[in-house]
């Protein structure tokens, strides 16, 4: 039976943090004093976890960190992941909004497929969530959708290799289009040009449309909203603004520091009118196109417009723990099950029990809100 929680939500998206080390010290994420806390596992361990979860219905895997490109061997890992063939629920495309997931037959093993399938057939890569092309995407053809979230600093040199290995999409975290402001937020000198080069290399490699995620923090970068709208149109990338969430190391979050969806839309409309685009059920971003059809932005608004009702995600941390929600106060030690010699079936049973206890929603801003047991850099977004 496909992996579903007690609220009837199908779990089809897996995020794997492959390291909690990071080469940036973004002010809304890290205090900059703490380094990596949890360490990494060998890629074969993540691969086994992914294989079991793909067999249970996972269709999308996103690699995160810390900064995932700090891990040597990430290209090879993507190549191995791309050999897995999804068996579970097949999310319905954006065009038939409101449709429930189609159940695919659920065999008891996961066949591998030859790597040249993906490359030889020359199917266009990177049909992004919600951006539909008439040509069927790899996703439509049942390939695993493999994405990566990176700060882009190391991307330019590996973009082509990642694409050739089977990566479908890339999201680059970037919180200012002004190099001076960028350096102030990341607390790393001369990063802006590196990241811009990484974005352009990803587009050139065929990992498009590239998404650029910007966390907005009142008093830091809300004046970057319109410049990012221009950037999306000039660079041909999808810029997504993210409401600041209480997941930072020095716990300085407040409701007042959140730049909300409504504010972002109002500010951007001062530049050009926006038209909202329909989106799939489990998509986290609200999507908008500019009135002249040139360029697209998205807004991920977990604070002002929560989307927990259709949450399809679970996460594996760099040290092999399952987190059923970004705001979990518990970790579930999947790696310990592997270390004690559990079979794949036993791992699947363990995962089913954990998902059964998935949180219904977050409680940000509510009196009973309890901070997550880990901060973002140690979860992986
Ligand atoms: S806060 Fe938790 S339940 Fe809500 S969308 Fe995020 S991960 Fe899912």
Question: What would the average pLDDT be, to the nearest integer?
Answer: 87
What's the CATH class label? Alpha Beta
Largest sheet: 12 strands, mixed
Structural class: alpha/beta
CATH topology tier name = TIM Barrel
Structural Rg = 20 Å
Summed up, the domain count is: 1
Strand content: 5-15%
Q: What hetero molecules are bound to the protein chains? A: iron/sulfur cluster
Q: Percentage of helical residues?
A: 10-25%
Span between termini:
27 Å
Please, could you describe this protein's structure?
The protein has 381 residues and is of the alpha/beta class. It has helices at residues 43-55, 74-81, 116-120, 159-165, 179-186, 191-205, 225-235, 261-269, 334-339, 344-356; strands spanning 13-17, 60-64, 145-150, 169-173, 211-216, 238-243, 274-277, 285-290, 296-300, 313-316, 321-323, 332-333. The protein has a 12-stranded mixed sheet. A hairpin with an 8-residue loop joins β11 (321-323) and β12. α1 (43-55) packs across α10 (344-356) and α4 (159-165) runs parallel beside α6. Mean pLDDT is 87; it is low at 89-141. Iron/sulfur cluster binds next to loops.
Tags for this model:
381 residues; alpha/beta; TIM Barrel; 10 helices; binds iron/sulfur cluster
